[in-house]
Amino acid sequence: MFIGLNWWLAAAALASFVTFAIHTFVGTGQIARPLLDPGLKLSSVSRYTNYYCWHLVTITLLAQAACFAWAALPSRAPDLAVLATVLAAGFLAWNITLNLWRRLPIAVAPQWVFFAPITILGAVGLATW
């Protein structure tokens, strides 16, 4: 089963899954759940749009891990790895842009720490396809 496995893409799958797990099991309590606090001064539209988007990211991170995992297997389509790598690169680029634009401290928006390795692993995995 491991003969012909693209280990770079497998590592990208693992990194994506770890990111999904941290997002889901750590971030949800710190970021998503407080959005439902009735004492939070947000309109219903803003509150539930942000809550909805949080869960869209959750689904996207799990799908990204699945895309990398499937593409890592022998004789599988690299187009899934291309998609997952482009998504990771886009998330990385937006995080860096936001941090620079808004002059945010790293602790406020540290997502680049997750997406830089995923992007690199995906790109190397595609280069070694």
Characterization of the model:
This protein has 129 residues and is an all-alpha fold. The chain has one domain. The protein is 73% helix and 0% strand. The protein is built from four helices and no strands. The protein has helices at residues 7-32, 44-72, 79-101, 112-127. Helix 1 (7-32) packs antiparallel against helix 2 (44-72), helix 1 runs antiparallel to helix 4 (112-127) and helix 3 runs antiparallel to helix 4. The longest helix is centred in the middle third of the chain and has 29 residues, at 44-72. It is elongated and about 55 Å long. The mean pLDDT is 96.
Gist of the model:
This protein is mainly α and 129 residues long.
> In one word, what is the shape?
elongated
Topology order in helix (H) and strand (E) letters: HHHH
Main sheet summary: none
Output mean pLDDT. 96
Helical segment count:
4
> In total, how many beta strands?
0
What oligomeric assembly is this protein in? Answer: single chain
Q: Rg, please?
A: 16 Å
Derived structural class: mainly alpha
Count of structural domains = 1
Provide the β-strand percentage band: under 5%
Whole-Å distance between the termini?
Answer: 17 Å
Q: Low-confidence segments, ≥5 residues, pLDDT <50? A: none
The helicity comes to over 70%
Name the descriptors:
129 residues, mainly alpha, 73% helix, 0% strand, elongated
